[in-house]
Design brief:
heterodimer; A: 0% strand; B: 159 residues; alpha+beta; five-stranded antiparallel beta sheet; 23% strand; globular
Chain lengths: 862, 159
């Protein structure tokens, strides 16, 4: 990079001389102290002082005198970092001051640069390349201060871009290799450079690894820290496996707790890849657990043991003892919090340990500190199994009733998601669960109405045996007038209404239901809920009429039926004038039937089974008595269009009527039959317009009753639309046949039925993981090739790889193939020094390279 | 890795802000406001660790100042608590019974101290003695020149 023209060289003496000429300016230049004092003296006029100062600064910073400039820059830095004024206009001036010989000015310039430069906002950064280069290599010049490079290192690590890093990477190498106080800093800057720009790996990696074995403990610590960050998620820790022996040595020899913590972190990432490492590090870890005084180190040991050393029982036992100690420290909330956190980590494998600490966890739920409550909730979630689900969930819901709104909703959320996972796998006693859902609705701050209503309907559809209980809960919700005003709950209420309509045969008192569904306060409900209410009334009415005729119910005598009919007519009548089309539609249907059966009580005693009223009632009852399951949203797609069906025909007529407003279509175009529920669509098998009607009415229906459709994102495997129902009995759910777990259950768990799903979940998830595995990151690839090349031939293959990779490193599109080819290169050079044929081998690299690494470690470990 | 360090007083004014990850100015403002709100409402008896977006903030209150450090989720909290304490001890030693005003007027020196023992988000030096020694040397280099220039200025102005 060409050096930009900079102002003449400056030293302290010349600046003093030139001060004479700019004396006037300097005398009146306010220093930083003055600025701060003026800001503090009058807080109310702060904006005006700041704007005045900014205009002064803008004037001063353009002067040619470096001292003035630097003081201006200092003031600007202050204003920028603490009062958020953008200082990008000063970027060029900052760069001008960077090369100044006076350490003070230089330092100010670097400070300003590191605080304000940003690869995305400053294009001028490349102009500083030469200066940074000079500063980084200034150690070779004996007259310059030994601390200059540290300034440059700071700037490099904070504000550099990938380009800058790749240019300056070679300058870092000498700093890394000589043991100076700067070495740890160089290591830290190196880590940043490496993560920004993987093409520098061949140049920088080897010196970095050498730092691991340096004499200076600070360097070692910095190097371990660098590797810890490099191997952190989301990066791939696999390339760092060959370094395991050296890090182990650090683990055993180092005295500094910081270093040990970092080394343990690296091991916790490497052990899952190479289990034999686990047996090596168990001893030092147990030693630390028993002897160390530092709580931070003990904590890190516990975390490492719990995450990756499951099979070593001794270590696990020690760790669990320590966790219990942490949990029981009453005076220090930090330790208790950490104890809960690590307890939660034990979850899948060692639930017995969590059970033992149940008391503490339950108590922590009531802690005033929100963080502790969260952790306790998480632990509770983790330790809930089928056996203790009832206990835990009851406890949690009770706690939710007592907590503040946010936490209560969080508890409800986790309970709902936990219990509904895998088709309600955890729930054994559905009666209890359904009543729990009812209780949740009553909690004052509950905002989870949507999820609760979804689950109520879902359970109703899947679990036959619980329907009586469900109807009971729904009845309680419907009767209560106070719930009608709560706008979070209208979803739940419409679900309750739907349930009581659908399963009315289980209810004890249909009249009560009708009264509840028609109470005056229902006018507070939104239209969609009201529509559901009215439809439920319809269903209850047909059921009642039918039972009245059959005379098989003691509750439904003449007076009651008459009352029901008159009540309906009275309350629903006015709604016939409603502006909402859906409500009006259903009301008309209902009123129509009511008027038809108005004289039903004349039938009592009359055994005339052929009368019109009788027929109407029977027909209506049959209509509602078939149980229909929900239809998958993709069901229509599954049907292949028959060849003689021409869907395009006749559609031109429709286009006149097509508009955004659904309701106009249903009223104005009589050729499209529209039923409130898709009951009769299964019966229609005519081809042509009615087929069109069927598909559009299906969509309409789906739009309006989206709540009751199963959301199917994935394609379903079955070819048939309406025949899915019989199939339901064949597919058995994953209900527990595992008798070993059912110790306390008094009645068998009802079967939970799977409806119209059968999506291949397995295939879709495997697809996504394949995509992730295919995405290789260039950094780990570059490191792999360096390490493998290094172990073989040493210098030569490393440099060859570096010269060619530096050219191609930036080309990430082809990166994967080139990487594997290059690592093949390195490896083939290891094995067959002369032969070049293997360069063009197919990509079978990854499994082979992993196999290569194991013998490498074995040599060192054994 | 440390993502940023903030020193804020009870009223929310930032006394020091050092970021180790690139952030826009407006984002910085938002972050500082959020961290302050998070931290100032907590009771002294609560834990010193709070979750913040997808990271953690480890904070401690010394007199009227909140020292907050934002670190990754997987980091060891107790170790960073020690780190904060080390920083405060060094400030105390350097400014002799430091108070908030010292930090306000000498903000560039505070940055110097901070840079000395944390680089690129990683803790470099854990020995208090070593840092203080180094600071002494640096102070001589950086601030002697300044003092010299100011002295000359005053002399010249008196002529």
């Amino acid at each position: 990079m060409a050096t930009p023209p900079l102002p003449s060289s400056t030293s302290t003496t010349t600046s003093v001389l030139s001060t004479a000429s700019s004396l006037a300016d300097s005398l009146f230049q306010r220093s930083l102290d003055d600025l701060i004092k003026s800001l503090r003296s009058d807080p109310s006029s702060e904006p005006s002082i700041i704007s005045r100062a900014l205009s002064e600064i803008q004037r001063e910073i353009r002067s040619s005198d470096p001292l003035t400039k630097s003081i201006a820059l200092q003031k600007l830095t202050y204003l920028s970092s603490l009062h958020f004024h953008p200082m990008s206009f000063a970027a060029f001036h900052t760069l001008e001051l960077l090369p100044s010989l006076s350490p003070q000015t230089k330092r100010l310039a670097y400070l300003a640069a590191s605080l304000s430069f940003h690869p995305s906002t400053t294009d001028l950064l490349p102009l500083a390349t030469h200066q940074l280069h000079k500063d980084l290599t200034s150690l070779s010049n004996p007259s310059s201060s030994p601390f200059l490079p540290s300034l440059a290192l700071h700037l490099l690590s904070l504000a550099s871009s990938a380009d800058l890093s790749s240019h300056l990477a070679p300058d870092l190498v000498p700093l890394l290799s000589r043991s100076s106080p700067l070495q740890p800093k160089a290591v830290a800057a190196t880590y940043r450079v490496l993560s920004l720009c993987p093409s520098t790996v061949p140049v920088l990696f080897k010196p970095l690894v050498d730092c691991l074995s340096s004499d200076n403990p600070l360097t070692v610590s910095a190097a371990v820290g660098a590797f810890c960050e490099l191997s952190a998620a989301p990066n791939d820790p696999a390339p760092y496996l060959p370094l395991a022996p050296e890090i182990y040595r650090v683990l055993v020899n180092s005295r500094s707790n910081w270093t040990l913590i970092k080394a343990l972190k690296i091991f916790s990432r490497l052990v899952p890849l190479e289990p034999r490492l686990g047996s090596r590090i168990v001893e030092p870890i147990c030693k630390f657990l028993c002897e160390s005084q530092a709580k931070s180190l003990v904590l890190e040991c516990i975390k490492t043991v719990v995450t990756c050393l499951h099979t070593h029982t001794e270590a696990m036992r020690l760790a669990i003892d320590k966790i219990k100690e942490l949990l029981s420290s009453d005076d220090d909330p930090n330790l208790r919090y950490l104890g809960l956190q690590t307890l939660g980590m034990l979850a899948p494998g060692h639930l017995w340990a969590l059970e033992e600490s149940r008391e503490v966890v339950a108590q922590s739920l009531t802690d005033p500190d929100r963080s502790i409550c969260h952790e306790a909730l998480r632990v509770m979630m983790a330790m809930t199994l089928q056996e203790n689900s009832i206990e835990n969930c009851t406890l949690l819901v009770r706690q939710a009733a007592k907590s503040d709104p946010e936490f209560a909703n969080e508890i409800l959320d986790s309970v709902l998601s936990l219990c509904s996972k895998d088709f309600y796998e955890l729930v054994v006693d559905f009666d209890w669960y359904v009543s729990l859902l009812g209780k949740m609705v009553r909690i004052v701050h509950c905002t989870k109405g949507d999820e609760i209503s979804r689950q109520l309907v879902d359970i109703g559809l899947r679990v036959r045996d619980v329907r009586p209980e469900l109807v009971r809960v729904a009845r309680e919700l419907l009767i209560d007038p106070s719930l009608l005003g709560n706008h979070f709950l209208y979803n739940v209420l419409s679900a309750a209404a739907w349930i009581s309509g659908e399963y009315v045969e289980f209810s004890k008192d249909p009249m009560e239901l009708v009264e509840a569904l028609l109470q005056p306060r229902t006018s507070l409900l939104p239209t969609s809920a009201r529509a559901v209410y009215i439809q439920s009334v319809f269903k209850v009415l047909t059921f009642s009429c039918n039972s009245y005729i059959d005379e098989n119910s003691s509750l439904l005598n003449d007076t009651i039926i008459a009352r029901m009919l008159s009540l309906i007519e009275m309350t629903v009548g006015p709604l016939a004038e409603s502006e909402e089309a859906e409500v009006e539609d259903r009301v008309m249907n209902l009123l129509g039937v009511v008027r038809l059966v108005a004289n039903i009580k004349d039938l009592s005693g009359d055994k005339d089974k052929d009368g019109m009223i009788y027929e109407v009632v029977r027909a209506m009852y049959d209509l509602f008595s078939d149980e229909m399951g929900p239809v998958s949203a993709n069901a229509q797609k599954k049907i292949s269009v028959p060849e003689d069906l021409d869907l395009k025909e006749n559609l031109d007529d429709l286009s006149e009527f097509m508009s955004d407003n659904d309701t106009t279509m249903s009223r104005s175009n009589p050729s499209i039959l529209f039923y409130p529920q898709s009951r009769n669509t299964s019966e229609e098998v005519e081809v042509g317009p009615s087929r069109v009607a069927e598909s559009t009415s299906l969509e309409e229906h789906r739009k309006r009753h989206g709540l009751y459709y199963l959301s199917a994102d994935k394609e379903s495997a079955e070819p048939e639309l309406t025949k899915d129902y019989p199939r339901v009995n064949e597919t058995l759910p994953p209900s527990n046949g595992d008798t070993a777990r059912r110790v306390k259950v008094t009645k068998p768990r009802p079967t939970v039925v799977k409806l119209d799903e059968g999506e291949d979940l397995a295939a879709s998830s495997s697809l996504s993981t394949k995509v992730e595995v295919a995405k290789d990151d260039t950094l780990s690839g570059a490191i792999k090739e360096v390490l493998l090349g290094r172990k073989g031939n040493g210098a030569s293959s490393g440099f060859d790889a570096s010269s060619s990779s530096q050219g191609k490193g930036k080309d990430k599109v082809k990166g994967k193939e080139i990487k594997s080819k290059k690592s093949e290169d390195g490896e083939s050079k290891d094995r067959h020094k002369g032969r070049r044929k293997h360069k063009h081998k197919k990509e079978t690299m990854p499994p082979v390279s992993v196999a290569q690494e194991t013998p490498v470690i074995q040599d060192f470990l054994l | 890795m440390i993502r940023f360090i903030l020193l804020q007083n009870r009223q929310g004014k930032t006394r020091l802000a050092k970021y180790y990850v690139p952030l826009e100015d407006s984002e910085k403002h938002k972050v500082e406001y959020e961290v302050h709100r998070l931290v100032v409402n907590r009771d002294p008896k609560f834990t010193n660790f709070v979750e913040f977006r997808t990271h953690k903030v480890i904070y401690r209150r010394y007199a009227g100042l909140f020292f907050s450090m934002c670190v990754d989720i997987t980091d060891n909290e107790l170790a960073y608590l020690e780190c904060i304490h080390l920083f405060v001890e060094i400030l105390d030693h350097f400014f002799s019974n430091v108070c908030e005003l010292d930090l306000v007027f000498n903000f560039h020196k505070v940055y110097l101290i901070l840079d000395e023992f944390i680089l690129a988000g990683e803790l470099q030096e854990t020995s208090k003695r070593a840092i203080i020694e180094r600071m002494g040397e640096l102070e001589n280099i950086y601030f002697r020149a300044m003092r010299f220039a100011i002295v000359i200025l005053h002399l010249v102005s008196k002529i």
